[in-house]
Description:
Elements: H1 22-31, H2 44-53, H3 62-74, H4 79-86, H5 90-98
Amino acid sequence: MNATCRIDGCTAAPRPGRRICYKHRTRITRHGDPDFTEWTVADEFDVELIVAEQRAVEGLTRLERVMVARGLTERDVPAEEIARIVGVTPRCVYRWRSEGFRQAA
Length: 105
């Protein structure tokens, strides 16, 4: 049997009795399913509402977190407060600011 991993572009053999290779199983465990696109989805209205109200919200996608952090930074909100609202560490907010929010999104 000449099976390959079910992830597009991967030519590695799957784990015994499974459909994906060891490398992708580890990545899925650490970072989530690579085919899941939640990180690139953002609701502009929700982002604007959160920035205006400056209240903590759960369940934001990664892109929404970055967009809220960018909006709050423009309003001169301290990094610790942004981290509380967005649900990340202050270090993460400082890193996003130093990168100019480009790579984080």
